[in-house]
Amino acid sequence: MATKNIVVVGAGYSGVFTARKLAKRLKGTDYQIVLVDRHSFFTYMTELHEVATKRVEPKHIQLDLRTLFVRQPNVKIVTANLQGVDKDAKIVKTSEGDIAYEKLVLATGGTTNTFGTPGVEEYGFTLWSFEEAVKLRAHIEKVIREGAMELDPAKREAKLRIAVVGSGFTGVELAGELIEQRRELAEANNLDESEIKIDVIEAAPTILNMLANRKLADKGEQYMINHGINLRKSAGVVEVKESAAVLKDGTEVPTETLVWTAGVKAKEQGSLWGLEQGPAGRFMADDYSRAKGEEDIYVVGDVAAYQEPARTVADNPRSGWTPQTVEGGESAANTAVPNIVYDLTGKGSRKAFKGHYQGYAVSIGAHYTVGIAEQFGSMKFGKNGIPLTGFFANMFKHVINLYFFTQITSGYHIFHYMMDEFFRTPNGRTPFFGWTSRMGNVLWSLPLRIVVGILWIQAGAALNGGVGVLASLVGWLITFGLFTSLASFVAFVTGLVMLIAGQSVAGSAILMTFASLALMNGAGRTVGLDYWVVPFLEKSLGRSLYGKHESRYNDLKK
Question: Model-level pTM?
Fold first, then answer.
């Protein structure tokens, strides 16, 4: 029987969720899922602000699509631009050719809504894509460096002031990261930290207006003020110039770095496809996540507009709309998938949309967060959830992110997320103020590594049986810097067992045990075999497990 296509356009949160769930539900059938996106990788959008402010490297938020679907051969990946949708012929037109579909899922996402403000496109920056984050990252470093060398006071002020327009999730999280990056920028350019100004400009009289709990919003606001953010409330931007933002009262804020985060809308091309549109150009969805009036087209994620009856307040047309968040997109995917399966196979039953929200967290830099824990699994935490601030809210946000990774990927990416957020982050920009980071110079651990390795070799010679063999083995591995972290962990555990069992109580044994723990911090990467072996294994094992990464895919032509 000929293979039939279910085409998913967009490899963002909702598109990846949908493709993975469809692949599982339709395994063994004659249906294949064709995932179309202009990138060969998934972008972890909620961390764009961390890339833009140099907290993490760009590759940290990229997950190669082949890696995500290597275990699902019924998913075909096509790297292409979407050019149109022919509903009558049931064809998706792409830069790589036409793709026929039985069912189509539009997960094309959103883009920044500038509300037609003059000058934003020409002189402003946005933060809604991987490319935009990398562009802003390079610009911030460049303009601050120029400002440090500028002698003209007016030009200097414009270069050393960063203006963030909008105080929603993106705007506040970006401002929070800028608080911490400012210190690094000042040190790198011989500036006093106070010379680099950060403004948050909000048209409404309050900030963080998506938070129903205003006490949390107030705490977030106070944290920003305490850390030098200049909040301009009730101050809409009416024009952006090359070196200034013009406010509605005529005030000009000098800046050459204006980041517009004040709104989200569906991408412009959607208006060409003949689908009913709602707020901000989003496609109106029915109760089953289909595009309104369509039988074979489903819409999920930021591009979809659905007003949940249970959350809609009478006489408030703005209430109840599915939030443009990861969980909103996941809820739509969880609705679309069983309905598509029912349409195609008759199995199961139709499922009406029901939003499922664990909670949310707004990080204001690496060290402070405000949020609400609404539920865990099916267990709800009261009517309004549990408010969280500071460290616990920070950990809650990481739990949310890790939960997301368990939904779409493997332990490999979970491991790297943990490493990048806690153990490889420079300049103390972790929830633990850098205490857990291994970004220190491991060269100074070289003498300790060699001494500890020799001591374990000697201990192995003095001990009998398997313990002696194990002690000698870890000693040689530590000495030569091979699998140092693993060997050091084994040495640490072995030492603890020996101490507890009373086999050794000498001071040297205690020092060997806990020195081994210290060597887990990448000590073999300096004058050690791990410098070559670990990168080789990561590359070769990664390729054998997940396939070769490519900058473009077109599985339909293989």
Answer: 0.84
